[in-house]
Design goal:
By secondary structure, this protein is of the alpha/beta class. It is 29% helix and 13% strand. The longest helix has 17 residues, at 45-61.
Length: 272
């Protein structure tokens, strides 16, 4: 796990200016293969893991705020399928999730906003992601105005302490140039955004919500599908209750994974 650097000793270029373009690069790690989603107790686990990732990446590609999606994977089939969707594929260095995320971020435009987004979000929708990224961008800009219920200080996050309440976010110190979105359980992280790729200091995994809360603005009031990652059967039931993407739905309905074309999606990627 990457150690967080002290804000007092870290030199940063500062938050985004109000006229910076709202065109995001998103980095999404995809494990793929027989080892993916090993905590799911299902015979179709590998097919389901592939379908979930494809649905999440398709939703990100269809988000109007996103200029590119970078998929980091070491699985040949996943690389091929996500490239067919329109993602740019980067090889996974093979030394853990953090290294994969940083490898992807290193290939993004150095001056634009960048997000590290998990690919196990079967209920992710383009409009929900757009709304989330809009709030993140406001927090990263130097003219951000706190919403209702937002107060100074980093404050607690779900799973770390009391829920921060109904506000759009809980602001940390003014110098912070990251925004974090905890997962639905409040322990992990589904999204970490930076004003620039070089500003990102990711943790991810168990306990990452608390680690990110120490160095980033915390955003919890987002659509439920943005936060509902899937690692267990219980998580999957929660995602199904929210509604899942077409590939995930097809696998859950019992259709063979081979019949699900990578390009078949309910979301049409938008590009300028």
């Amino acid at each position: 796990m990457a150690a967080a650097r002290s804000p007092e000793t870290t030199t940063r270029p500062g938050p985004l200016a109000s006229d910076d373009a709202a065109r995001w690069s998103l980095v999404m790690p995809v494990k793929g293969g027989p080892g993916a989603k090993s905590r799911l107790v299902r015979d179709d686990r590998e097919a389901l893991a592939r379908a979930i990732a494809l649905d999440a990446v398709a939703a990100a590609l269809a988000c109007p705020d996103v200029v590119e999606v970078v998929v980091v994977t070491g699985d040949e089939r996943s690389a091929r399928e996500h490239a067919e969707l329109g993602a740019r594929v980067v090889a996974d260095p093979g030394v853990g999730l953090l290294a994969a995320l940083l490898a992807g971020a290193a290939t993004c435009a150095p001056s634009g906003p960048c997000g590290l987004l998990l690919a196990d979000l079967p209920s992710l929708r383009p409009d929900d992601l757009s709304a989330t990224l809009t709030v993140c961008l406001d927090l990263l800009r130097d003219d951000a105005v706190p919403g209702p219920g937002v107060g100074p200080g980093i404050g607690p996050v779900p799973g770390v302490g009391p829920d921060p309440g109904p506000g759009a976010a809980r602001l940390g110190p003014a110098h912070l140039v990251m925004v974090t979105v905890p997962d639905a359980d409040g322990d992990g992280t589904v999204l970490l955004c930076g004003a620039r790729p070089g500003d990102l200091e990711p943790h991810f995994g168990s306990g990452s919500a608390a680690a990110h809360a120490a160095v980033a603005h915390v955003l919890t009031d987002v659509p439920a599908g943005v936060r509902r990652d899937v690692d267990t059967d219980e998580h999957l039931r929660g995602a199904v209750a929210l509604g899942v993407g077409p590939r995930t739905a097809q696998v859950l309905a019992g259709q063979p994974r081979s019949t699900i074309a990578p390009s078949a999606a309910s979301f049409s990627p938008k590009r300028s």
